[in-house]
Design a protein that fits this description.
Methylamine Dehydrogenase, Chain H, nucleotide-binding, flat, 21 helices, alpha+beta, transcription, DNA-binding transcription factor activity, two-component regulatory system, single chain
């Protein structure tokens, strides 16, 4: 019986509280302001309309606005576009069933908006055309249920009766029986159309012949003679008439009945919401009414006006228009305040916060909520004191009493002390537990706050358990237990964490204390969840059970920082954590062990920081977090989340600020006040969102309707109305934008989309990302689908779709594949045909190929033969030429004319033969790709004059007039000196050869510029012209062929008959120089060879065979075409210099001693003069010596692994190290080891202890001695290896090296690499060996031996300098002279003169 009474009492309280809350919630309605800050074009709203797609339209004084809940598109006049709206002042909007909008403007006539094409059709009044509207000032546009368009202007009523194919609209002007302006047009449910004018109401009657008559409704004296501003209908089908004197109801069924006056306040605009509340717009805000019980009178519920301190109030009081959309949301258009949106069915989260009222809540940051046994609500704030809301004020939440002595109320609890109800208070700003007399606090103005318990830290949680024991949790001070004794006072015990006791409480930060239905007490701490079993509660040293997270155990608690604890009616305990989400503790059941089930943000929880937990009457768990409220259904384990868009005080709630009232209502405190609500009143909006595809972009550019992209129109109508889209292959990167038309809380709407044929799964996005982006989509057919949900997760059942076809490029079309197929078949047929033909010709082709290969092989053999024989000719030619030179210059034959004449003939032919041999060799180099050119920027006129100087003697001798001319004083050009010298000499030799006595040979040097395809090239032109027999046309065609000669009796006999390679070689050389040569000839008159060479260096760049050298480069005086040997020497020297740079500049001393102190001492003493290397035994020393090749080695005799004697023996027996001086150190006093060391080649011996100065001197003397030997090698012309070596192994090494160089003395290609191979040493070791023995690098050693042999030949033979040059491996006189002078301080010819002078002096 007692249980039933309690249930009935709770039920009644719940119903009363719900009614009170609903009433209060109505007065707490929030208005959402939509102004120019959100994109509205202007703040004066004249009209509002929702089209059949769901978009909202607003008419303003600055254009027409379209709104989708997220952004605005607005339309204003464009003087350059006749398809734009005609006026900025939009006064009225209506829509037909075809989706067109009809817009009436003030002064701009009527506009029809075709939403598919996004174009406006303008309709103006034309004075001379009676089929147009009668005025451009439109008052009302109305579309009836027959899709007829009625247009009321300031002069009358117009009916649209036809629209021509050209788009011209035909209107019929109706005659009015009165001279009044139409204010409103309305069609009731029966189809009757009503017109209201000033003080008049008319019913439109259509006659049988299609005519229209206005029937005046005689309502007097029912309705006073006043302005009618509104016509509508109530839910019973009665006509509502809004006037300046109130609202009247007229029965349409019983028209003879009088109109009832149900509201006396002026009515400017009116809507009836889905709960039959009347919302009335006035010049002073919005009024909300409901019908009384009898339904005969409107009773005022609320008045909504502008409040400057409340952003959720009406934006302006002057209301122009009210409009209810399809979902029941009311839109309010104001004058100067933009649009206001209010949802009468919005979730009833009552929001209570501090206001300007002195009796409002004291502070908005809530830390504690508590309902005492008398039904009063206590609210602790963080910084604003303690608030008391008496039971009588619950529901209004407007009259709070404040206690400022408690600045930060963090914990509240009620106890009874001495038969008085006391409120226990934990103040976060003070230490200790305080109490307040509840009854005194309600009835007396100044109630004292008394200290009940002193604590070391602030009190954060309080619990009075089932046995009236008080548990006090502190921040970092542990927990206090207060057990009441017989005296009426408390025995206090304190429990803190003891790391040494695993049964102590887990942490001293106590955030919350909770007792479950079994009597167990749970403690939320900063490091784990602690529990006291009921039988442990009064123990002197109770044993706590501790739960902590375990990363290896998924059934452990998720986080160690615990916040709220709540026991569900099922017996499960829910635990909130500070970052680890929500935990559900499942006690042991049916043999299953206890466990925790974790719920995170990824599982649907609003946020992983849980602040409070409560249970509603249906068993749902409500959780406050940092991101709103979550409602958890334990049966299906799903979450439903709510945020600030649903009416919450803020998304962030405060720690442990949650309370379930005795009425069943829930309260949650946050940073902006608190919310109170009845869970049964929080219902989902079941109306789905309407999904629209709103924009389409290609490569991030929005595609406009009718705009041409790449010669095609992509959109011929708005994308929202397109079902299919064709795209070109280069339009395959696109973005599809979409919107969800549901205005309750648009920011909570969600979207999911999929491009079938591309996306495998549906992609979910939020309202902040209302677009799908695709790039580089392959050609083919695709279908894009998108659907949206409303703010409560109700999804659109029919997604919007758009099929897309991306055309392939031409080469991937079916036609292209057809062509490919035909082409393939054709190829196969042709292959078959020509295979047969080929089979018959194959043998012939093989024969032709064989013949060709034989010719090429023969040509190759001929060239190889000429080349080989030319090489063989050079040596005997040298031996022939040398004696001839001697005969011509010898005193014994100088006066013998016969000998001189014959010798001159022999010399001339020898020189010619030598030149021919050299040309053959150069010719082979060009053919084999071994020719190299080095070009420099040089003055070319003087260069050619220098080459022509020797020909002046021939010209004079043969009576030929020879001239070199140029119109330019100077021409700088880039060319290879040697190449141009050979070209010029060949052409001059040819010219003189065929010029008779008395003839002329002329060289003209010119500049020429050619332009091809905007590219200008400068050339130097060299013309070699001679008079004579000329060249026939047949000969001109073959003149540049190899081995082509033609006998001619008229040629100059002073020149030998050619071998046929001169001009061929010249042409190849010019081509190699990127130039051209041609010949012009008039028989028996003149012949001209014209050579054109590029003047600029750009013509030679990026050609591997051509090097470009500047003036300052060191080899400037050396002509590249003669410098194979020089290049070899240069490469050798570069490699040697790299080896040299890698070695230390100081002499390298290797110290080998097993005593580290001795090594350190020697290193410190000699470190400035030597680079000191260290080794601890002979084996290590040998390894370092082989690797580093030191200049000198200092070694101990007695050492582990390998002693000094063995080390010295190995070093002196290796070619690589035999030259290295070795000084031995020993502690032995006998001479035996010294003798043994000296026998095997040791260079010195010192006994320990030694004087460091003597050691320095000995080392220095040995190195100086070696330097002296090196200088001797370089200074002496004739020298035997034993004269500069210390060991027999070094002597053998040097002899072998000299023999190898002697063997290859005449080989110009001999270099260091060949020497390395024959010597059997590495390149670096050979370099070091030569450097230590001779002071020369490897390349310098070869050159030194050759130059010494050259000196010997100059002194001991009668060979000319040039012959000796060839005999010693040099092939250019300039390089030979350069090296000779560097070695001996004078040129070879000067050395010869010196020898002759010495011999002459000796003979005297």
């Amino acid at each position: 019986m007692t249980l039933n009474k309690r249930f009935i009492t709770t039920f009644i309280n719940s119903v009363v509280f719900t009614i009170t809350l609903i009433t209060n919630a109505q007065s707490n309605i929030k208005f959402e302001r939509i102004t120019t800050s959100e994109g509205l074009s202007q703040s004066d709203i004249n009209c509002i309309y929702q089209d059949n797609d769901g978009f909202m339209w607003f008419g303003t004084f600055d254009g027409l606005n379209k709104y989708d809940g997220y952004k605005f598109d607005y339309y204003v006049p464009n003087p350059n576009n006749n398809n734009s709206i005609s006026s900025n002042i939009v006064f009225t909007i209506s829509g037909d069933t075809k989706g067109n909008l009809w817009i009436g403007t003030t002064g701009g006539g009527l506009n029809k908006l075709n939403k598919k094409t996004e174009t406006f059709t303008r309709n103006y009044h034309i004075e001379s055309d009676s089929t147009t509207i009668d005025s451009d000032i439109i008052r009302v546009v109305f579309v009836d249920n027959k899709d007829r368009v009625w247009v009321a202007t300031d002069k009358g009523v117009n009916l649209l009766i036809n629209e021509t194919p050209e788009g011209k609209m035909i209107f019929k002007r109706l005659e009015l029986p009165f001279n009044k302006i139409i204010k409103t047009i309305y069609q009731d449910k029966t189809g009757t159309i009503w017109f209201s004018a000033t003080e008049k109401l008319f019913e439109l009657v259509e006659t049988n012949d299609g005519a229209f008559k206005f029937k005046k409704l005689n309502y007097r004296p029912d309705v006073p003679n006043t302005t009618i501003s509104y016509l509508g209908e109530d839910k019973k089908g009665n006509l509502l008439i809004g006037t300046s004197k109130g609202l009247f109801v007229k029965s349409l069924k019983h028209k003879k009945r009088k109109a009832r006056h149900i509201l006396k306040n002026p009515v400017k605009s009116l809507v009836i919401d889905n709960d039959n509340h009347y919302w009335v717009g006035t010049n002073n805000g919005v009024l909300q009414y409901e019908l009384n019980d009898k339904g005969r009178q409107l009773v005022k519920e609320n008045r909504f006006t502008y409040d400057p301190v409340n952003p959720n109030s009406l934006s302006k009081n002057l209301v122009n228009i009210l409009y209810k959309d399809k979902t029941g949301i009311i839109w309010i258009g104001t004058n100067g305040g933009g649009v206001n949106k209010v949802n009468p069915k919005k979730k009833q989260f009552l929001h209570v916060k501090k206001t300007s009222s002195p009796n409002s809540l004291s502070y908005d940051k809530i830390r504690a909520l508590f309902e005492d046994s008398l039904g009063n609500i206590w609210i602790g704030t963080e910084g604003g004191g303690l608030n008391l809301l008496p039971k009588s004020e619950i529901g209004t939440y407007t009259n709070f009493k404040k206690f400022e002595k408690v600045l930060r109320g963090f914990a509240l609890q009620e106890v009874e002390i001495n038969n008085r109800k006391k409120l226990l208070i934990g103040d976060g700003n003070k230490r200790g537990l305080y109490m307040l007399d509840i009854e005194d606090a309600i009835n007396k103005p100044n109630t004292k706050v008394e200290l009940l318990l002193e604590t070391t830290n602030s009190v954060f949680s309080i619990l009075k358990d089932a046995d009236n024991t008080i548990w006090v949790g502190t921040y970092n001070g542990g927990v206090y237990r207060m057990v009441k004794n017989d005296k009426g006072t408390y025995n206090v015990s304190e429990f803190t964490n003891n790391p040494e006791n695993k049964y102590s409480i887990s942490n001293n930060i106590i955030r919350y204390i909770y007792q479950d239905s079994k009597g167990n007490i749970w403690f939320a701490t900063g490091d784990g969840l602690s529990k006291l079993e009921y039988n442990e509660l009064l123990e002197e040293d109770p044993m706590f059970d501790v739960y902590k997270t375990n990363k290896q155990d998924a059934n452990s608690i998720s986080h160690n920082y615990i916040m709220p604890i709540y026991e569900h009616s099922s017996g499960d305990i829910y635990i909130g954590t500070f970052g680890g989400g929500l935990n559900r503790y499942m006690p042991p059941r049916n043999g299953s062990p206890e466990k925790f089930i974790r719920y995170y943000q990824k599982d649907g929880l609003a946020n992983n920081v849980v602040k409070s937990i409560l249970e509603d009457h249906l068993g749902h768990i409500w959780v406050s977090t940092n991101k709103g409220l979550s409602k958890f259904n334990p049966e299906n384990q799903t979450f439903k989340n709510y945020d600030v868009n649903d009416g919450l005080q803020d998304n962030e709630f405060q720690e442990l600020a949650g309370l379930k009232l005795s009425s069943g209502a829930l309260m949650f405190g946050g940073i902006n006040g608190f919310n109170v609500f009845t869970p049964s009143q929080i219902n989902d909006n079941v109306l789905p969102s309407e999904t629209i595809i709103s924009n389409f972009s290609i490569f991030n550019e929005i595609v406009k309707v009718g705009k041409i992209y790449n010669k095609t129109v992509v959109l011929d109508s708005a994308i929202a109305y397109k079902k299919h889209l064709n795209l070109a292959y280069d339009q395959n990167s696109f973005t599809i934008e979409f919107t969800g038309l549901h205005y309750e809380a648009p920011l909570k709407n969600k979207f999911t989309y999929k491009l079938e044929g591309y996306d495998k799964n549906w992609v979910t996005s939020t309202s902040n990302n209302r677009f799908a982006n695709y790039t580089n989509i392959s050609p083919g057919n695709y279908t894009f689908k998108v659907k949206s949900s409303n703010s409560d997760g109700v999804w659109d059942a029919t997604p919007s779709t758009l099929s897309l076809y991306i055309a392939p490029p031409f080469w991937k079309t079916n036609f292209a594949y057809f062509i490919y197929t035909l082409f393939t078949i054709g190829l196969l047929l042709a292959f078959r045909k020509y295979t047969i033909i080929g089979t018959t010709r194959k043998h012939q082709l093989e024969l032709d190929q064989l013949e060709k290969e034989q010719k090429e092989e023969l040509q190759k053999i001929k060239l190889e033969f000429f080349t080989n024989i030319s090489h063989e000719f050079r040596t005997p030619l040298t031996l022939i030429k040398g004696p001839l030179d001697y005969l011509l210059t010898s005193n014994t034959t100088k006066d013998n004319e016969v000998v001189q004449e014959q010798a001159q003939i022999m010399l001339k032919n020898t020189n010619y033969l030598l030149r021919l041999v050299n040309q053959l060799l150069d010719f082979r180099k060009i053919n084999q790709g071994k020719m190299r050119l080095v070009i420099r920027n040089t003055e070319i006129i003087n260069f050619i004059k220098d080459i022509g100087e020797p020909f002046q003697f021939i010209a004079h001798k043969q009576d030929i007039d020879f001239n070199i001319k140029s119109p330019h004083k100077s021409i700088k050009a880039w060319f290879d000196h040697d190449a141009l010298e050979k070209i010029t000499k060949n052409l001059l030799s040819n010219a003189f050869k065929f010029t008779p006595a008395g003839g002329e040979v002329t060289i003209n040097i010119l500049k020429e510029t050619e332009t091809q395809q905007n590219d200008t090239t400068d050339f130097v032109v060299i013309e070699v012209k001679n008079t004579g027999i000329g060249i026939s046309k047949d000969d001109i065609e073959n003149i540049f062929e190899r081995f082509y000669t033609k006998k001619n009796k008229k040629r100059n006999n002073d020149f030998q008959n050619g071998a046929g390679i001169g001009l061929a070689f010249t042409k190849n050389l010019i081509n190699f120089h990127q130039g051209t040569i041609k010949v012009e000839s008039e028989p028996n008159e003149t012949t001209t060879f014209i050579v054109k060479l590029p003047q600029r260096k750009t013509a030679y760049e990026k050609i591997p065979e051509i090097s470009i050298k500047e003036k300052n480069e060191s080899d400037f005086l050396v002509r590249s075409s003669e410098q194979e040997s020089f290049a070899i020497q240069l490469n050798d020297e570069i490699t040697d210099s790299q080896i040299s740079s890698s070695r230390s500049k100081l002499p390298v001393l290797l110290v080998v001693d097993d005593n580290k102190d001795i090594r350190n001492f020697i290193k410190r003493a000699l470190g400035e003069s030597y680079k000191v290397l260290e080794a601890s035994n002979g084996a290590e020393g040998l390894e370092i010596a082989n690797k580093s090749i030191p200049n000198i080695i200092l070694t101990d005799v007695i050492m582990p692994v390998m002693d000094g004697i063995e080390l010295c023996n190995v070093l002196k027996s290796q070619n690589e190290t035999s030259h290295i001086p070795v000084i031995m150190l020993t502690a032995k006093s006998s001479n035996e080891s010294e003798i043994e060391g000296l026998k095997i080649g040791a260079d010195g011996y010192m006994k320990k202890p030694f004087d460091i100065n003597i050691l320095k001197l000995k080392l220095s003397n040995i190195l100086k001695y070696r330097e002296g030997l090196k200088k001797k090698f370089n200074r002496e012309i004739t020298l035997q290896p034993e004269e500069v070596t210390v060991t027999s192994l070094d002597e053998k090494f040097l002899k072998k090296a000299i023999e190898i160089v002697e063997k290859h003395m005449m080989n110009t290609d001999f270099n260091v690499e060949l020497l390395v191979k024959e010597m059997g040493l590495s390149r670096s070791n050979l370099y070091v060996k030569f450097k230590e023995l001779t002071g020369l690098s490897s390349s310098a050693f070869i050159r030194n031996i050759r130059l010494k042999r050259a000196v010997q030949l100059l002194e001991q033979s009668n060979f000319s300098v040039k012959e000796i040059m060839y005999m010693t491996g040099f092939n250019t006189s300039s390089y030979f002279s350069q090296c000779f002078k560097k070695q001996f301080g004078m040129l070879p010819r000067e050395y010869v003169k010196k020898i002759k002078a010495e011999k002459a002096k000796a003979s005297q």
